[in-house]
Amino acid sequence: MALVLGIETSCDETAVGIVDNRKLLANVISSSVDQHARFGGVVPEVASRAHLEAMQQVIKQALKEAKVSIKDIDAIAVTAGPGLIGALLVGVSSASALALALDKPLYGVNHLSAHIAVDMLDSDKKLRPAIALLVSGGHSSILQVNNLAKDVKVKGATIDDAAGEAFDKVARIMGLGFPGGPVIDNEAKNGKADGIIFPRGLSQNLDMQKHRYDFSFSGLKTAVLRYLEQTPNYKKADVAASFQEAVVDVLLTKSLAACQESGIDNLVIAGGVAANSRLRQLAITRCEAAKIELSIPPANLCTDNGAMVAALGSLAINEGLAPSQLGISADSAAEISRVIF
Ligand code: KG4
Ligand code: ZN
């Protein structure tokens, strides 16, 4: 049982969350997304500077929101990877400084595991083995989570683009702006999901033998591009809805198969793409039909935030994991197997 402050700076959000064991006390986010929008993607150097500028204020605001003093904090958790290296280093340095000054343990944690850990917050559900569909801007995988802090197995992953990346790229070619996920989600609300039949990657029989739980979204992206070139008067909303349906369909088909084939009746969906309204809706319908218990964190906790980092720090403490050494570095390409640095 501990009061944990979590710092997240792996991409363009400077975020601090505070949790008391599994209770969420504060979640403050400052995003530099507006500074990147005109480039159509996150500019690492700009993101790092924005983290430096925002950090102190975001920490202060989180303490205020949680109604706690910095001296009450029992441990500091921070995303140490994967992510943009310069951005990660701002978070790791800030967290190390705090841990040193307060003489409290430091937990450098894995960003991907943290996306899943946020699901524990404000819930008294017993932690049990689950299949996790982790879908973000840089990663798309199906994981068997026996114990999030100690035993996670990768069942499959994308062989090219991540699901979020596909949303971002398709939004860019349609001229919808950045980041693509929320704009396509919105545009799709006025379109027909079955208006255009786009390909479902790695879903044919032959592919399924070799890539049962893997994803591929680059063929889908090309199919959208070709459709746009060949259809001068295309309806943006129909393209958005049909593209989104192709992504969501394949994500859920493979995740449910992983549940059924591993005898696990519990699916967690996490990461930025888990904020997608169609994914959330179709997941409820399909899980109900398959009698699989579904957990998806609230949409604002699916995209990057500090609460997820604090949640994983808190889990590490409850599981008796040793804290990190002061002086840890960041690992931009950390694997999910590296939970604590
Ligand atoms: O987890 P996240 O916030 O950052 C990473 O760790 O990558 O995920 C960001 C990704 C972006 O690609 C963004 O377009 C996507 O999540 N995303 C969405 C939605 N909201 C964010 N994708 C689909 N629908 C959404 N509503
Ligand atoms: Zn993320």
UniProtKB/TrEMBL annotation:
Domain Gcp-like span(s) in chain numbering: 23-310
Record-linked Pfam families: TsaD
Enzyme class: transferase
One biological process term in Gene Ontology: tRNA threonylcarbamoyladenosine modification
EC nos: 2.3.1.234
A molecular function GO annotation: tRNA N(6)-L-threonylcarbamoyladenine synthase activity
Transmembrane segments: none
Gene3D superfamilies, per database record: 3.30.420.40
Entries under SUPFAM superfamilies matching the protein: Actin-like ATPase domain
Reactions this protein catalyses: L-threonylcarbamoyladenylate + adenosine(37) in tRNA = N(6)-L-threonylcarbamoyladenosine(37) in tRNA + AMP + H(+)
HAMAP family with a match to the protein in the record: TsaD (MF_01445)
Protein name: N(6)-L-threonylcarbamoyladenine synthase
